[in-house]
Amino acid sequence: MSINVNALENVILFGDSLMAGYGLPQEKHLAIVLQNNLNDSGYDLGIIDGSVSGSTSAGGLNRVEWSLSQPNIDLMILGLGANDMLRGISPIETEKNLEKIIQTAKLKNIEIILAGMIAPTTHGISYKKKFDNIYPSLAKKYKLNLIPFLLEGVALKPELNQDDGMHPNEKGTIIISDTLTKSIINFIKK
């Protein structure tokens, strides 16, 4: 289904601290930076910050109905799973939760761009393979646009992350915003 750019009103960021702007001043949060990016590119879209720091896929599932009840949400950037991975939650459970979130959005006629994560080998190679497969598998099953790795170009680069080494700093947020801007514009144009 293609959306007419004139009909596209609001995009919701539905993720965890990586999208919520953890540790950054309000004006540097991803939702604000992305809004400005899109406006500067000539797209008059509202960006809704529906992200919650610390959220797991189960937490997202618990709040998805409420978060998507706002009027005129046309597109969701779904970026959950990093906290599941950090806690070693079963990739099967993470995938089921993400799938239910996708199904809820689809029932509300909200399009989805899936922002993937990649696991380190902390929980073993088998865990990593299962976790890393969640996002391409769901994107294929539901014919979703996929950002293979939300933190592409930012992860493991100290100059782009806060002192904790996990959360993007202002420069890292700009890179993530650029990735999302390209993905949203490509989605609109398809």
Q: Give the termini distance in whole angstroms.
A: 9 Å
Uncertain runs: 1-5
| Class of secondary structure makeup | alpha/beta
CATH topology: Rossmann fold
Structure summary:
This protein is of the alpha/beta class and 190 residues long.
Describe the protein in words:
Residues 1-5 have low confidence and may be disordered. With 190 residues, this protein is α/β, with parallel strands linked by helices. It has a single domain (10-189), classed as 3-Layer(aba) Sandwich (Rossmann fold), CATH 3.40.50. The relative contact order is 0.17. It has a 5-stranded parallel beta sheet with strand order 2-1-3-4-5, sandwiched between helices. The chain has 7 helices and 5 strands.
Question: Keywords, please?
Answer:
190 residues; alpha/beta; Rossmann fold; five-stranded parallel β-sheet
Outline the fold blueprint:
Elements: E1 10-15, H1 17-20, H2 30-40, E2 46-49, H3 57-67, E3 73-79, H4 82-87, H5 91-107, E4 111-115, H6 125-142, E5 145-147, H7 170-189
Parallel strand pairs: 1-2, 1-3, 3-4, 4-5
